[in-house]
Amino acid sequence: SKATVSVLYCSTHTMYWGLLFAVVCIGYALYKLAAKPPKGVALHHKTEPFLGITRDIIEKLMKTKEVTGAEYNLNEFRSNGWKTFGWALFGGKFGYTLYTQEDVKFVLKDEFNSFVKGKGFIDIFYSLLGDGIFNTNGDKWKEQRITMAHMFNRRQLRDRMSTTFGNHAQDMVQILQDAASSSDPYNIQELFYCYTFDCINMIAFNRDVNSLKGVERDCAFQAAFDTAQQRVIHRFILPWWKISEKYGLSEDERMLKKALNNINQYVEQVVDGYYDEEGNIRDDALQGDQTMTGLFLEAAKEEGKKYDRKFLRDMILNTVIAGRDTTGSALTSCVEYLVQHPEWQDKLAEEAKTCFGGNTQEALTFDDIEGKSPVAEAVFLEALRLNPSVPSNEKIAVKDVTLPSGVEVKKDAIVGWLPMATSRYKGYWGEDAEEFNPTRWMKGKAYDDYMYPTFNAGPRLCLGKNMAILEGKTALLTIFAHFRFTAKKGFKPTHIASVTWQNDHNGMQVHVNEI
Fold first, then answer.
1. Phi first, then psi: what are they for 491, rounded to 5°?
2. What whole-number distance in Å separates Cα of residue 107 and Cα of residue 116?
3. Which of 74, 87, 84, 82 is nearest to 46 (CA)?
4. Is this prediction's pTM over 0.85?
5. Distance of CA 318 to the CA centre of its chain
6. pLDDT digit string (tens) for 275-295?
């Protein structure tokens, strides 16, 4: 009938337009998600239409795990002749990885306010770092930095930090003596992370956690903290991570949630010591408190600032990642290179004799080390040059800018720099740029922060730089006054994708020999 035909026509007509609308919506969504490589700059050589470098980076970083993100970018610099390159990911992310000294300085100092921690970056790390100093911009960042500067003065280094480093370094000696009595290889990475964990807990929170007594990073907090860092980094690659986080759709997000629960339980114990039941900071908790946290809250109180429990939680986690992971990573790298260059182990031992003054049973002090340990400092800085604790970093452009190199950066583009690459450029560091040679630090030459941004540079230069160097030197001088290390036969450390540079659970396997 005519009525039936009319109904069928209307239904078909409606279906047609509905299907067309759906196709248009899907097409628009795919267009928005498609990788859009930046123009006017050489692109990463694995760039593909629509996907950009997404497929290649998932394959190499998440499936085969043959490289970390920093190594992935370093290899691109090596293959393209050390030139700035552009890249794009499925999901709309695009950006530039910088190389030249002038461009890095431009981003970190000259046009500091034109580049910020982007919303995407902050969102990715918010569940772990919250509003802490490493995950904020503008006034939030500036306010914390000004207040935290009180905690890193020379008096703190001399009186509290140095004593803590020296005492815990002696704890390492006792543990290594047991390891030396066995012919089995020993994972020294675990030892260093426990050392730095114990140190930062005492300095920052006056907590004697004694992880060195058990010498295992598998205590609930440390294991959870490692898991959180390794899992959160995958969010940079996967554009749908927020949905996965909300509904627990991926193993990464499920493991991250579990890890964060363990982390928060630990941190709440610290926070409880400073707040009363009404959520106010207890005056008695600050009396005589010379810890980093106590000094921070006291300074904040004098400046008329008030911080809630969440803020203190965020500050504590930012402090732990700075105090444990970066120096633990650096010391592991030191041993990685020292087993390949045993002559530097001998030089450290000779320097240790001078610093200890013949009594290696006593803990080293600030005065024992300051100005008397050029070898230890050179070894520490050289290991960090080759294996920076934070091997890559990035910001977002808040406006269109032109870099000194002529590269035109568009607003909202990600601008990254790679300490692992700038610290290996032969044009600046010489033909031995990719070789371990601490002597370069003992010639009186001052290297530019923007070619050695291991401690960041410009207004965000690491407040704890001198603390980290002192902690590293104390550890190196103490252990090499007693021991030598050789690598386990056939062992090669496997680096993993994480917020900081670290090895997998096998760590750094060595044989310990007492002298």
1. -80, 135
2. 9
3. 87
4. yes
5. 10
6. 888 878 888 887 777 788 888
